[in-house]
Structures are given as C-alpha cells and as structure tokens.
Specification:
Strands 2-1-3 form a 3-stranded parallel sheet, sandwiched between helices. The protein has helices spanning 5-24, 42-58, 72-81; strands spanning 32-37, 61-66, 87-91. Helices cover 48% and strands 18% of the residues. It is built from 3 helices and 3 strands; from the N terminus they run αβαβαβ. Helix 2 links the parallel strand 1 and strand 2 (61-66). The N and C termini lie far apart (36 Å). The chain is flat, with a radius of gyration of 15 Å. The longest helix has 20 residues, at 5-24. With 97 residues, the chain is α/β, with parallel strands linked by helices.
Length: 97
C-alpha cells in the first residue's frame, strides 16, 4: 500500500484551518508565528519557506527572522514579551552543522 504524504497532510491542514476558524477567530485573537534562522543552512531556509506557505494557507501570520546565533537568546526573550506573537519556531542547526 502506498501512502501519499500530501494526502495525509491535507487532512491535518484542514483540521488546523477549521480549529482556527471555529475556536480562535471568534475571540478576535490572531495567530502569529515567528521563525528564527541563525545560520546559512539552506535546508532551514527551505523549511521556513514551507512553514510560511502552510501558515498562509491556514490564516496564520508568519514572519521569518534571520539573526546571529549570538542574539538568539535575547531575541527569544523579546518575542516572549510581544503579545502579538503566539508561537516561535527555532530552526536548526543553530551553531553550524
């Protein structure tokens, strides 16, 4: 039996969209994720780009930030204080790799 990853993902994407529409949107709260990239790893950049596509599809704001690995901790602290940010994604590797 062959399983199509896109068909499996389609179900989860729809569930996420439905949840946002039914549970989050009525509250007036908007979801915003920030992705932190602290390296030149092309795979991380591609993953971040796909995250944006998924967020756009689900109605979630997504912002990618390229920062120095040495600024990661302070950036996380700032984002944790920002009430408009509901999620942070840290893309690996952080210290090379």
């Amino acid at each position: 039996m062959e399983v199509s990853p896109s068909e499996v993902a389609k179900k989860f994407r729809q569930e996420a969209k439905d949840y946002i529409k039914e549970q989050i949107a009525p509250s007036g709260k908007k979801l915003k994720f920030v992705g932190l990239l602290s390296n030149d790893n092309e795979d991380s950049k591609v993953y971040s780009d796909f995250t944006k596509l998924g967020c756009d599809d689900a109605g979630v704001e997504y912002e990618a930030k390229v920062i120095s690995r040495f600024d990661l901790e302070s950036e996380l602290r700032e984002l944790n204080q920002d009430d408009s940010v509901t999620g942070v994604i840290v893309y690996y590797p952080i210290f090379g790799g």
